[in-house]
Amino acid sequence: MPSRSRLARGRTLHPVVLDDFFRDVVEIDYGEEDQEEEPGEDESEGSSDDDEDDDEDEEEEREREEFAAGDCGPSAQARVSSVAAAGGSAERTNMPTCPVCMEPWTSQGPHRISCIPCGHVYGRSCLERWLTQRGNRSATCPQCGKRFKDKDIINLYAPEVAIPKNELEKEISYLRERNDSLEKKVLHHDKLFEEMTKRQIDMEQRIIDAVSSKRQKVADHLDGAAHLEPSTSTTVNFSLQNELFLDGARVISIDASNQIILASGRASSVGAEHVLTKISMFSTHGALKIHLPPDTKAVRDMCILPGGSAIFTSLGKRLSLFSMTTDSVVLQCDLPVPGWSCSADVLSSRHIYAGLQNGMLLVFDIRQTARPLHSMMGLSTQPIHTLHSVIDNNGCRKILSASAVGPCMWDTDDHQSRPHLLTGMDNQHVCISLACAPPSSDLLVASFRPKVGAASEDGNTSQVYLSQTPSRPVGSGKLGHHSLIRRTSNASLAEGATCYGNVSEVRMSKSAIIPYGDSQHLFAYGDESLRGVRTWQLPSFAIHADLCSHRQPILDLRYAESPGGGRYLGCLSEEKLQVFRIT
Question: Which positions fall inside the RING-type domain (predicted)?
Answer without folding.
Answer: 98-144
